[in-house]
Amino acid sequence: GAESGGGGGGGLVGVDGGLDAAIGTEVAFSELALTSLGVFLIVFCASLVIGGVVGACSALLHKYISITADWDEGWVIDSALVLLFPYLAYTIAEAANLSGIVAVLFCGMVMGRYTRQNLDKAPRMVTMCFFKLVAFLSETFVFIYMGSSMCMLSSSHLVTAVIALFAVFLGRAANIFPGAYILNRTIRPSEEYGQITGNVQVMLWYCGLRGAVAYALAMKAAATLGAPGQAMLSSTLFVVMFTVIGMGGATTWVLQKLDIIDAPPVPGRGGGGGGGAGDSTPYTPSTPGTARASMKATARVGGRV
Fold it and tell me: Which of 52, 36, 116 is nearest to 79 (CA)?
């Protein structure tokens, strides 16, 4: 879920200040847009720096100090330190009225790249399993809460919700296709280097689902911005419902139509007669190059879906 968390977190938190001053007053659109853009850039960049610095401190600490190597129970201390650093980044950013979500995002990126390599095997396995468990439980809780909040979707904001949905599609296209073009022209010139094909680009655009982070930020807007916040919440619920349930449910079908994965085998028509090994053939990418391009492009261009 990367889901586009950095852009969403920085976007709403950064624009909050500009909206608070503009709501209820006559403000020119150009002035509001410039103010919002300026606040967004300041908040986003400052939060990015905080997250990156905290993550770097974590990597340096575990590079030069290993409690696990000096004490049998040291893996507990090392694991606890790994868990505390992201919270430290979040706390610092929130205390400075910045975006804790963006700070945690970039702190996690730095720690995942550098801190993990400096950990001993025991704390590395403990922290990886813990983060996966917490992420799964948190995501499950948020989607359950989101489903129970669908009754808050107001039909009076339907036009705004549809416009928001098209804005999501346009924003996703502005991210995926130019980014893929630049990558293909520079570091991915051929299939050997994982070139991002046209079908994979379309799939990356299609699978940009909105979910937990967008909903959490919309809830904050509804609590702090009044009527405009309620419009944001209704629009977000509509976009989430359409993309997650509608588009997410059709993902396998779209992958097959774009020839990114093969169609599932039909029972009784596998090789060697009915009920043979052919019936249990799993989905496989149409070509190895396409599969590599899809996975790498998701990480570098599309983010967490």
Answer: 116
Q: In whole angstroms, what is the distance from residue 299 CA to residue 305 CA?
A: 9
* Neighbouring C-beta atoms of residue 143, cutoff 10 Å: 15
**pLDDT of 49 above 90:** yes
CA angle 248, 1, 90 (to 5 degrees): 155
pLDDT band at 222 (very low <50, low <70, confident <90, very high): confident
What DSSP element (H or E) covers 280?
none
pLDDT tens digits, residue range 144-185?
A: 877 777 776 777 888 888 998 898 899 889 989 999 999 999
Q: Which residues partner with 261 through β-bridges?
A: 285
- At 23, which helix (H) or strand (E)? none
Round to whole Å and give the CA distance between 203 and 254. Answer: 8
Please choose, from the candidates 238, 298, 302, 1, the residue with its C-alpha nearest in 3D space to the C-alpha of residue 138. 1
How far, in Å, CA of 66 to CA of 77, rounded?
A: 9
The residues near 240 (Cβ < 8 Å, ≥ 6 apart) are: 146, 210, 211, 214, 215
Q: Is the dihedral of CA 233, 236, 240, 241 positive or negative?
A: positive
- Residues 75 and 82: their CA atoms lie apart, in Å, by 11
The string of DSSP codes covering 198-231 is HHHHHHHHHT----HHHHHHHHHHHHHSSHHHHH
How far apart are alpha carbons 164 and 30 in whole angstroms? 20
**Quick check: helix, strand or coil at residue 285?**
strand
pTM: 0.58
CA distance 196 to 28: 42
Sign of CA dihedral 178, 181, 185, 191: positive
Rounded Cα distance between 250 and 46, Å, is: 39
CA atoms within 13 A on the CB side of 189: 1
